Amino acid sequence: MAILQRTGSDPWVYTLLCRLCRAIGDSVFHECWPVLVSLECHVDEEGQKELVKQMVETWGDKLVRGPVEGVCGDITPADSKGRVILMVSTTDLARTVIYEPQL
Question: DSSP labels for 30-41?
Fold first, then answer.
């Protein structure tokens, strides 16, 4: 999923993101292998907040946001069945911050 730098609020991009997140979330079931979502991040900090908010709201507990309960050490695909694992790639590590929403 590649989201480009936003120039103001773009409802088309936001609508597409919402639909993609819903489609991914609707496709992940408890017995399924984990879904890996590769995100190439080209948005500013405000845009990242919007991305994270949308993903957390849509995927909820399916989104791996820290250590997986009951797993010590390396996680295996079997340990994360029914979950969404987000992989983030950026071209500017010094300026990119991935936000964890306040719960």
Answer: TTSPPEEEEEEE
Domain ranges of the chain: 12-90
Angle between helices 45-59 and 11-27 (to 10 degrees): 30
3-state secondary structure of 66: coil
pLDDT over threshold 70, residue 37: yes
CB of 86 closer than 8 Å to CB of 55: yes
Alpha helices, DSSP H, located in the chain: 11-27, 45-59
pLDDT per residue over 3-32, tens digit each?
A: 544 445 566 677 888 899 999 999 999 999
Split at pLDDT 50, 70, 90, the class of 88 is confident
pTM (2 d.p.): 0.71
Per this entry, what is the length of the chain? 103
